[in-house]
Design a protein that fits this description.
Layout (H helix, E strand, L loop, with lengths): L3 H14 L5 E6 L20 E7 L2 E6 L8 E6 L4 E6 L14 E7 L6 E6 L7 E5 L6 H4 L10 H8 L6 H6 L9 H11 L12 H22 L7 H7 L19 E4 L4 E4 L1 H4 L16
Antiparallel strand pairs: 1-6, 2-3, 3-4, 4-8, 5-7, 6-7, 9-10
InterPro entries: DNA_glyclase_Znf_dom_DNA_BS, FPG_cat, FPG_N, H2TH_FPG, Ribosomal_uS13-like_H2TH, Znf_DNA_glyclase/AP_lyase, Znf_FPG/IleRS
GO molecular function, one term: 8-oxo-7,8-dihydroguanine DNA N-glycosylase activity
Family: Belongs to the FPG family.
Amino acid sequence: MPELPEVEALAHHLREHAVYRPVARVDLASMSALKTFDPPVSALVGRVVTGASRFGKFLSVDFDDRPDTGPLHLVTHLSRAGWLRWHTTAGVTPPKPGRGPLQLRVHLDQVGGPGFDLTEQGTQKRLAVYLVEDPAQVPGIAKLGPDALELGRAGLDELLDGDNRRLKTLLVDQSTLAGIGNAYSDEILHTARLSPYATASRLDAAARDTLFESLHAVLSDAVARSVGQGAAELKGEKRSGLRVHARTGLPCPVCGDTVREVSFAERSFQYCPTCQTGGKPLADRRLSRLVR
């Protein structure tokens, strides 16, 4: 799933390549992906791209206003298997709905010219697209907590105080803290040497300092590595920077212990026992008990 660094890099890529270009046509290949109906996507034709921005893990492509309406924003949440692909040329024949991974295509300058596609692999289609006058009209954006990269040290205390959830759960809750998903939460907790099952409110001041520093270091480094990369290279760049996430069974690059995994119904997380849990492995949920 694209998280804060990748979405920030996609926004940067669009600002570099799409700004000042007019929309020639919009092809909607999946009706289920579009969550709004007024205005229709055809309202983008003739409008000029003015920018691209990020709200947590949401990506917004911004368009100029018209005398009768204000600016429009094409907002997307790429979900687990979605992606944005930039193209220099595209087919002029409108795609057939329901065929392949293409969900929406935007032609810029001219039909068949440059532009971008929103695609989603797999059978579970969760990518969502909204065309709105204000990004705050998107329900998911309206519910977002503070952005992870804008969070101050005092703000972290406010999030942790009185919250008895596990750190892993807190970090990936977008209404609590926006932008962090499964992968970077694993990386942040590993860097901070904290257990995914540690109780948020019980962290002492030293652990909170470490968590704050790790959060900003991991995300800032990932953004620095990602921004400037082409959209096609971002997934590989993300994988190359991960130390524990998706590395089950491999040695921890810090201590050499074997990276372990805890699995849930639809996802899993990874951690290092030596670095994070005092050498004790966390029992997989598929077993009869959890070791804290």
